[in-house]
Each structure stands twice: as C-alpha cells, then as structure tokens.
Amino acid sequence: MNQRSWNIDDGPLRGMYRDRENAWIFGVCAGIADRFNFRLSTVRIIAVISLVLFFWLTAALYVGATLLIREKPLVYSGRRTEYEFWRRHHRNYWSQL
Q: Could you give the number of structural domains in the chain?
C-alpha cells in the first residue's frame, strides 16, 4: 500500500476513488491504476486504444465512472505532530468566531 492511499485518521482508503491529483481529465484512469495497483501509463494507453476502437462505449463508461465514482479525499503525508497541531488549530479557529 502506498502512502498516497493511507488516511491518517481512518487508516487505508477503501473502495474506488477518482484521483484528481494525477488526473488528465477527471481522474478515472488514475483512480483505477491506484486501486488495482497498475501503472498509470498502462491504464491510460488501454483507455486510449479502447477509445479508438470502441468510441461510444468507452466514452459512455468514462462519463458514467466520472459521475458515479467519488473524488479521492485529500491525504496529509507529513509528520504526525504537525498534523495534530494544525488539526487542533483549525478546530479552535471555528470556535472563536
């Protein structure tokens, strides 16, 4: 499991997500590559080849996946102490308003 798919609060991310950080369009290929541990370039090449061969089917599946699969939540990848400091600061900010 790579660090990008680990949430410091909840543990590993489960399920399928669209990865907007590594996306070209909507992140569907990046999400598939991350979920099934494939290389991103391989998934994109397969998507382009299937788009050329089966345009309407591939386009419909891609749009459907874009609408049905939720975005990957942001994951903090720094030190635990920094994360706890900013999390406490953020909570106190809203209570002071």
A: 1
